[in-house]
Amino acid sequence: MSIGIAVIGAGMAGKAHAAAYRVAPTLYQPTLPELRFVSVGDVNAPLAEATANRYGFDRHDTDWRAIAEDPDIHVVSVVIANSLHLEVVKGLLDAGKHVLCEKPLADTLESAREMARLAREASSITRVGLTYRRQPGIAAIKNWIDDGTLGRVLHYSGRYWCDYGCNPNGPISWRYKGPMGSGALADVGSHLTYLSEFVVGQNIQTVSGGAFMTAITERPVPLGAVVGHGMTEISDEREPVENDDYATYTALFGDVRGSFEVSRVAAGYPNGLNIEVFCENGAASFHQDTPSQVRLYLHGDDPGTNGYRTVNLGSDHPYVAGGMAMDVSGVGFGQNEGFAYQARAFLEEVAGIPEAESLPRNASFDDGVHNMEILAAVAESAANNGKTVHL
What we know:
Elements: E1 2-8, H1 12-23, E2 34-41, H2 45-54, E3 59-61, H3 64-68, E4 75-78, H4 85-94, E5 98-102, H5 109-121, E6 126-129, H6 136-146, E7 153-161, H7 184-200, E8 206-213, E9 218-222, E10 234-240, E11 246-253, E12 256-263, E13 272-279, E14 282-287, E15 293-298, E16 309-312, H8 335-350, H9 365-383, E17 389-390
Helix pairs in contact: 1-8, 4-5, 5-9, 6-7, 7-9
Protein name: Dehydrogenase
Domain Gfo/Idh/MocA-like oxidoreductase N-terminal: 4-129
InterPro entries: Gfo/Idh/MocA-like_OxRdtase_N (IPR000683), Gfo/Idh/MocA_oxidrdct_glycsds (IPR050463), GFO_IDH_MocA-like_dom (IPR055170), NAD(P)-bd_dom_sf (IPR036291)
């Protein structure tokens, strides 16, 4: 058995998927079958070719249908504009491909639900990319809650501050088009919302206090292709920004309350994910700018000396032992490794390796729909002066 791999989308996240598939067979014991790196697809031919060459894929394509029609390709990552997910994923599932689709699952809740329906009827495996559960620090906090070290959660705080949109001369792209809620909330809020339920261990039941802000109301039209969050030459013409630069809301998980804040215009925070959970036995926090560490506080020590301590993550924590080439404390790792763990988990599932012998499975399309239902509830709350919306 061998597995043929393709990635549709050659931009920033597409490169992360391509690199992750390359790294995946080097993680843990070499139980995966032979992997063949077949194609990188993108409508931007030079970009597709450059990404394929960089990561050792055999060819590049400018039409996703060429990948769907190739019988030598079995696994496909879909890493393109959210509005294109439904069409492309439907075509891939019709062709019998296993699909790993980037978050959020689609641009609209209706499209996401249709994708989940197609996935349930498909013979192949479908998963959505929500990588942060693979961060060893976040997984460790989750374990400390589950095993009683931290105990019952009292309340949760999460923010995801980014600055990729803080420059008013940053070019307009698909990221800045669409209804309120499809901007910063969908882009980084999808991660933050998913992580909250993963860590707390309960589903969100209501959201309230939803509020949006568009801080930069118009952006210049680019003269060339926009790749990821990158800059490019711009024209004198400007177009309106249609969606949210900033969003905030609160949520209720059973008897646990959480607060959330996301931004793409938070200057000085290139990738500022931060979660903090307060529990009956103490508290813990994770900061993306120090991903090899978590902060842990436990009751019971001398009050005069007790406080948050820094825990350096190593072989005693999830994903590190046997996965990292140097699986010891202090070596360091970051978000790129999360993509590699995600790819490894997906390939293990495709290869038929039993779940008990594999990394935890990736999120399902139904999970992706649930995530988007929460985001839609936040948008509904914001459109109605912060009213409480039940899920």
